[in-house]
Amino acid sequence: MWFRKIHWLLLALILSSCATQNRLDLTQDQVEGTGVIDYVSFVGRLAVADNEHSDSGSIEWRGDFLKQHIVLLSPIGTTVAEVSHQPLQTQISLSQDQTVTAQNVEEVTQKMLGYPLPLEGMPWWILGQGWPSTPAVIVHDSEGRVSAIHQESWDITYSEWQKINDLWLPKRINLTQEGVRIRIRVDKWHILRR
Q1: Which stretches in the chain have pLDDT values below 50?
Q2: Which of its termini does the chain have fewer beta carbons within 10 Å around, N or C?
Q3: Does 19 map to a domain?
Q4: Sequence-distant (≥ 6) Cβ neighbours of residue 188 within 8 angstroms
């Protein structure tokens, strides 16, 4: 009987820590050092395609694991959209002075941008980690780094990694879901950690 109580207490503690996690513990298969990431920003290139059209440009991403701010730019550097995301609220501002706020991030990004952005899982996926809130299938390469993640109906693959200080971070990230293909090439990372 006491074993059952301890079992349920441990399960409750694990679930509550997953639900409130806003920092990413670095795992040894990703890095040679140790620490916890508190804040991420990167600048890179973005290409999105589906069965009907394709777009490309640049992306500027910054945030922690609960809140993100993303700027999408055209190939000539003009701002196309700004996306601010936090749990249960996503706001998109387009260059035509249109602003929309919604709860379902993938639906509103699909409607406003023409493609879904999975912003709940992406803070982890862009670093080569599974999102801790839902089950994931994670595949490692021969070097121990993540080569693929399948989670939340998205397939995320990593074709190139780069070493920044003592961290191995993805350079090329591909996300696919039902005909939508998002390719990110990271040109510059900035990581704050404890």
Answers
A1: 1-34
A2: N
A3: no
A4: 42, 43, 44
